[in-house]
TrEMBL record:
GO terms for biological process: glycogen catabolic process. It comes from Reinekea marinisedimentorum. Belongs to the glycogen phosphorylase family. Its cofactor is pyridoxal 5'-phosphate. Keywords: Carbohydrate metabolism, Glycogen metabolism, Glycosyltransferase, Pyridoxal phosphate, Transferase. It catalyses: [(1->4)-alpha-D-glucosyl](n) + phosphate = [(1->4)-alpha-D-glucosyl](n-1) + alpha-D-glucose 1-phosphate. Gene3D superfamilies: Glycogen Phosphorylase B. This is Alpha-1,4 glucan phosphorylase. The modification N6-(pyridoxal phosphate)lysine is found at residue 667. The keyword Transferase applies. The lineage of its organism: Bacteria, Pseudomonadati, Pseudomonadota, Gammaproteobacteria, Oceanospirillales. SUPFAM superfamilies: UDP-Glycosyltransferase/glycogen phosphorylase. InterPro entries: Glycg_phsphrylas, Glyco_trans_35, Pyridoxal_P_attach_site. GO terms for cellular component: cytoplasm.
Amino acid sequence: GKKSAAPKPDMTVKQFKETVIKHLRSTLGTYEEKASKQAWNQAIAASVNEFIFDGVSRTRKTHAGKDARAVHYLSLEFLMGRLMSNNLQNLGLYELADKAMKELGFELADILEEEPDMALGNGGLGRLAACFIDSMATLALPAIGYGIHYEHGLFRQEFFKGRQVERPDQWREFGSPWEICRPESEQVVKLYGYVETVYENGGSHKVWHPGRTMRAIPWDIPIVGYGGHNVNVLRLWESRADKFFDWDVFNSGGYVDAYTESVQAETVSKVLYPNDETDAGKELRLIQQYFFSAASIADVMRRFRNAHGNDFSKFTALNALQLNDTHPAIAIPELMRVLVDEEGISWAEAWKMTRETFSYTNHTLLPEALEKWPLRMIQHVLPRHMEIIFEINARFLKDEVETKWPGNDGIKRKLSIIEEANGQMVRMGNLSVVGSHAVNGVAQIHSDLVKKDLFPEMNELWPGKFLNVTNGITPRRWMKACNPRLSTLIEKHVDADWPRYLEKLTALKPLADDSKFQKEYMAVKHANKEDFVKVIKELTDVDVSADAIFDVQIKRLHEYKRQHLNLLYIMALYRRLLINPDYDMHPRVFIFGAKAAPGYYLAKEIIFAINKVAEKVNNDPRIKDKIKVVFLPNYRVSLAEKLIPAADVSQQISLAGKEASGTGNMKLALNGAITLGTLDGANIEIAEEAGEENVVIFGMDVDEVVETREQGYNPGHYYQNNEELKAVLDWLDSDFFTPGEPGLLSAVKHNLVDHDPYMVLADYQSYSDAQSKIDALYRDKKAWARAAIINTASLAKFNSDRSIQDYADTIWNLKPIKAAAK
Ligand code: 26M
């Protein structure tokens, strides 16, 4: 059957047109002859909101009536991208809107370009949260996402003379049509001050006298599930100065400058920290974490009290709280504070409730990315929370660690939430594990390493607490919406509800050897590439051919992700062509997209080096356009949506053991790119699903990495013994790519030859060989088409609906509740 999961909307093209024009006039205050594309965009959004708001209310009423168990997904980041096309798709309105706009004389796709990305995240972790809330809504799970309403999302990237320049992101400059302010649900968040012990009736309790309070204002973004039945919300908190005077009890002289205080309060939700690893001890970052955690917990408590008063017997049955990394871990002592200090619940009872409620997802093993806060800072900003953390730690060490390993101070030192070395630090990972009933990694190998390398003793203490939930991506955004050509082709062969049940794509497998289907599939890829040729021209002024291999590496810039391995190979190919102009290779376009953290020196040097090599290669007539190198500025969700459908090769070349999962690897493979990757993160599972013959694997695996390191890794050895590798590294020292300025690219060379922390040189030869395999495979057109089709047909496991179903079953114990129909 070809049944459709998305309902046919009860609206005609004519009615949709009328609604848009109504909003153009009455919401936007303009009219057809005068309206800008931006105004049309907003008018369409307002029209779509007529459907969405109704869905929000229906879903809310359903949950309220049922006293439903719900999950609260706490994340400092939600990398939403644009919302219009996704909302139209999920409501089943896309084609209708497309027709309506055509009749009004516009291309819908063109008008969608007016929408700024909602870039409230850095990369993988933030985009995962966005895919997950889409899936939670689609699966009709009672769920709410909690985060920060940043005024400025991730910086906009420009290149100036090949170097990254950061510019502020302005996603809300003209307001966003998708958000609803909910002043009635405002919360108060306290900071600083001191703790008083009050003795009373033979007992005592603690009273926190905060030094400052601020307001948390919620903005709700509706999240439309596929099919439009269920609409959840993403609740983002904005910080504001207190209505009253901000009064520091310790600093009564400070009141003169009240404006400074209000500026400070409003600073909290001003800007997203542009790092994707830890940013050592910035007080504002800690306050961001606490601000949104406390506001969210207060929101959960308000909703609970409205239904149950002060009877907390059902609290754990009705609430799950998921920590997206340790960033919101301060929510653990915050819940304890509320239960013990405000509700008068005993410590033992409150701790039981807290542990049953929280679960924690780990996203990295990189030691430098594991969050630690100076104890003094937490004591200063959150004095009561520091006391609570001490108490949690003391009981943990005494009741659990001591019982299991009597008298073993070494293990106590290792498991303690407080690190005693180099000034006391609070280990947020340990706090998260101790305070949660479940801890999960994001791909099988990563979850294994979380147990084996990161928390081995915790795993012994609580076998069964550590789980795997392999990441996923929403096929609605990452296929249906971004790749309409492939979706249309797919729909000729599989049920129309494939965006919900991705395993239906296995019906394509028998077609992998069908030459007619192969041609159609590759024609789609070619058309997508033709479209992207224009994007490349527009953004970089580089001319590329859609007949070349589009070889893509898109992800944050990081040494462990090894964009410089890719660069070394590009230089080697270029050198081969200069040595032998007839060097046999299929033309290739190397495409990069990556932002570097503004303070990450070497990452910025790698961007500069790629841009300099690109400039030279792209303008060298001797190589007859066999290689082009394109570094797309300002890589972001909306650019990924254009590039991924056009990709032939997906570079996933991290050092084995370092990339927790990766999710770009899933998006690219689903859209028919062949993975060129190491045995790392979810690459391993992609190879399992698609078959090893349909991916190209290279390099050391995790065990070989360990072995190489134990033998005393010496990058100089590879440099000295590989003629081509030595030549390209030395090239970086010359002025070949930076005429008249030798040494500008030396930092990259010397880092590799002298340190090479991510073993780029050790994997170089294997990578180069794997690239030759890619070249050979691409030239066998049928073999390539077959492999690409099998990839598309085999990726059902990476549907984020499957990930969320796993969370619901194994961690949240959560059942769907379908919202009432209209
Ligand atoms: C920390 C401190 C200050 C400012 C920012 C941070 C911070 C922000 C983001 C730290 C880490 C952040 O994200 C890490 C991340 O994106 N990890 C990726 O998570 C993906 C989803 O699970 C995985 O697929 C990737 O492999 C993993 O690198």
